[in-house]
């Protein structure tokens, strides 16, 4: 592994595609929704209202939103254990998601899936996946299916740096390349697997792994939504127009622990590192600044979005807390279709 | 029950015909696996399909069982009906995550929203001098996982009918063919037919003892039944045809009728299919059994290469007859 | 039987101690797995080991279950005694080829020349609201494969003793810990001791019914036994401790003595561990049973996330008591 | 996949290390032993004296011998379903191998393993493997073990182009690179998996796959034993001296079918292609020519080797045919140690 600075993110030189004003505000709202959604997830956990654990993607919002904004709603995504962001960015509703996280019948999966298995067919989300690398085949299969059915749908496979350890990733990249499938492999390198720095688990050069299969690969700063969005637009266009698969490495960071219970992190990473990312590389701050600098909106516009999102989230939490649990008879339904 | 027909074809032809018919009927059906196209698999079961359906629907894959099984799962979730070909059942060990953690659970985990109409076609059975990594019968693993269905055809007729049902099912189905049966011949109608899952087939009626066999062990049971007839023992032979779902009622009813049961399956004996079936019957027919339910599985050893050893590990009619005799001698 | 000792430690500490002692005793013992070093695994079971033994003997691996299990096999064949850590039992699906086709068979396939003294430490059990891919109990799969041994400690004492035996064994051993038991406390002697494989432990003596429990289901059985005592039913509780090898004699003898048996295991019910044990007893104690052997496994569904559903799927003392009552009421 | 000529083999420019005369003759003998051994295996199959099937490596002798000649007898190899060559090259005896292939008790594995599972601990052969890619972990683990035990042993993992489809290969290459293990991954690209050309199953660039993990990789003409040997000497030296893993891609060809029963091959490859390799790229012919040109031996010297090998093989076949089968009681021995 190159002993490159942990925090280094590579800047793409080109000026990214510039979303229009309304789209910019929408993008900001989406990122903020993810952040507030997950802050509340953490809250629900610490107040013992949420069963089990949950993995927060706060800090990584620009990747989820930047990629999904480049997709159509009938395009597919597959996601991971850290999947709330992908799910929301692809179009899921916060109330049904909270309900799922609380194990309620009105949740996306009737409470049967929970945080690690949220799927929402209507928005093209084929599901989070609790097996690291477990959805790589599914995304690639969805791309094959799109090609076979003659649609121009595209499939995006989100996964973390840790999933680079799973052989299936290489198996399916090989096939995607051979068969020229419309699939984009989006690797979110947030520097850590659970509690181990990626340089201890990842030899060599990440994008070179994809390139070895003749897959077009790019590495970008995952905290800059404009870069993520514009690169994604290019890669989606490639896939949709039959130019085949690609690999997008997004350098990013999770602010919280591996899961909500991972509070004492000093043995694997420093407070300084966390602060550096939170302060100088926060995707919301960066984008808000760009919006105000470019007169897309002003402080009060941002405050308005903030309060709208805040009240949506509050309503959603309330909806979920009030929602009923599934009936006991549900337990052995849906084993077979 | 088989329709009356004079047409006799092989097991292998029956499988091929089922696939061809379903692929003609439904454009979403496709095949993916190693050497499935021009080669038609090493067993030549798929010969001719690529010629009719093209390489777009008969996909030669790299040697990536985990990857292409996963691709099958994803394709199944998005409108296709893939038939994933795993060349030897032993290689499913490589794709068990995709089968047992993904395909099996997605419908349930999504609260019933997503479906995985996937067929995994693979095989089981020893006796080909292929040694320990090409001779296993691992079907019990799959039967243990809720969400999967497991079919074990024992005749060309069943092979065609069960495979067609599997392809039309909205759930993942694992269908195991015994490599030694591919050239077996039998009556198979030309018309379209399917065989419902969870319905056992009484392959031979009898009154003194029930022999339950799966896959090629049905033939072993039938041969044993012939030999038992010489000894004036009337054996009923039942083929569950699918072991998940399992037609418990037919098995228990027969056990109640005959009061003696032997279960024969080619998986390893311990913790195998014979254990489930034996325990279902021991419970369901408890007050009617004259003797304990006996189990005959493959010997609990990695399958040896040497023919003189391998043949000792697989159940055969003589073993069944010997075991049956002990059930009548009083103990 | 436990030596007399006042020292009380947790299950997790017992495991940690077993590893530390064996690593001190034998330089060839090492640990490999995800986040096993500084993090001491997400369950913190290995805390402190890397500080004593260094990163050369406590290896943090990439998330490559298949790869590092294979590395364990190769190291075991060439003079080392690896303890491979699979964070959740569900992830063994990814390394089943390395476990079932390689580790299990190499000694046999080599005609006894090569040995694979490998330990795979992993877990089983639901109830943590971790949903379908982090809650399974897949130990029956391993028990089905000749060449593997499977240990299921149910107390801190057994956890230490069985793990030590596993590490000293010349065969591959899969040891499953129940995630819910890690904080359980119990007496554990400081001295070195091992527990032989294939020897069941009678955790409680009784005369009216035998409750056979594995792993955390031993505790469920013991609680059920307490409740049954209130009903004047004397329950014997037996823990097989290893299910491969299985101490059939102790189980059958108890069944003969009590004439009624319930088998409780947290794997899926169908084709699970309960099937093997029930059928072994139904056969071995056939002429002594007053009622059919009853099985209680996990419900045959992917484990649901929602607590209200998940709790319905796992065997509990009330279910055992209810089932027991039916065995005494006539049919 | 580069649409490179199927038959192209890349020439390494440097003059390889030149084995001394005696060693040259030994190398030739080793290659010839493999060839004659396997010709007899085919014979035993067609005359129905051998149970099951068997995969011949005739045509690929230079890879097995070139690599193994660079190893010490306490170095390790792992092998494949096409493993007779590796086994013999590492030091196994033809008589005990024939006995194994016939399922006899005096075989290397007491008849329990057969062709696809021959192992010979004494010569460092950890076993053939009937799972494609199945031994990659084992070889890497042996290298880790050597490092941990503080020996300077090296492990070689032989595998075919088809094994590049198995994810485990990438998982273990990653770890070998991270941990700097003394392992050499030798990929024998004989152009086909079973009945499919490697270009249909292998996207991109093979050595780039290894290089992406920062593994030193070389591609050589596998029919030229001098090149194989000299490159292997280098790579073994690297590994032994702590410089870490490497990857060696050997371009080669199998003359026979995928297995002894694969007679009609026209649907997947042409007679012309087969003849081209047999005539112009035969490792034995090439090396014999070099030996005579360089006066290492003359025609009669080569004939002598030939007749010696011939008679050894004849004796070995006879030994194996006469050997007894294992006792029935053997069947459940060695399940557990
Ligand atoms: C196959 C598998 N192995 C191990 C785990 C346990 N696990 C869950 S998340 C995780 C780390 C994943 O790291 P990465 O892919 O970088 O994603 P991140 O958590 O950083 O988003 C691990 C090891 C798992 N879920 N699946
Ligand atoms: C995991 C696995 N999948 C499939 C097979 C069946 N199979 C045996 S050899 C082979 C082709 C191997 O090709 P390659 O690796 O190039 O080796 P070669 O036969 O050319 O020496 C296949 C598919 C297998 N043995 N193992
Ligand atoms: Mg990460
Ligand atoms: Mg090849």
How does this model look, in words?
- The complex is a heterotetramer, with two copies of chain A (337 residues) and two copies of chain B (331 residues).
- By secondary structure, chain A is α/β, with parallel strands linked by helices.
- Chain A has eleven helices and five strands; from the N terminus they run ααβαααβαβαβαβααα.
- Chain A has a single domain, classed as Rossmann fold (3-Layer(aba) Sandwich).
- Mean pLDDT of chain A is 95; it is low at 1-13.
- With 331 residues, chain B is α/β, with parallel strands linked by helices.
- Chain B has two domains: 8-187, Rossmann fold (3-Layer(aba) Sandwich), CATH 3.40.50; 201-325, Rossmann fold (3-Layer(aba) Sandwich).
- Chain B is built from twelve helices and 14 strands.
- Chain B has helices at residues 11-25, 49-53, 65-77, 96-103, 106-109, 139-143, 156-168, 217-230, 248-258, 273-284, 307-313, 317-328, and strands at residues 8-10, 29-33, 58-60, 81-85, 119-124, 149-151, 173-178, 185-187, 201-204, 209-213, 235-239, 242-244, 261-268, 294-298.
- In chain B, the strands form three sheets. Chain B has a seven-stranded mixed β-sheet with strand order 3-2-4-5-7-6-12, with helices on both faces. A five-stranded mixed β-sheet of chain B has the order 9-11-10-13-14, with helices on both faces. In chain B, strands 1-8 form a two-stranded antiparallel ribbon.
- Chain B starts with 7 loop residues before the first strand and ends with a helix.
- The interface between B and D is large, with 35 and 43 residues.
- One thiamine diphosphate sits between chains D (81-82, 130-132, 160-163, 190, 192-194, 258) and B (34, 63, 65, 87, 91, 94).
Tally of helical runs of chain A: 11
Named CATH architecture of the largest domain in chain B: 3-Layer(aba) Sandwich
Count of alpha/pi helices of chain B: 12
* Rg for CA atoms of chain B: 20 Å
Give the tally of structural domains of chain A: 1
Shape of chain B: globular
Q: Structural class, from helix and strand content of chain A?
A: alpha/beta
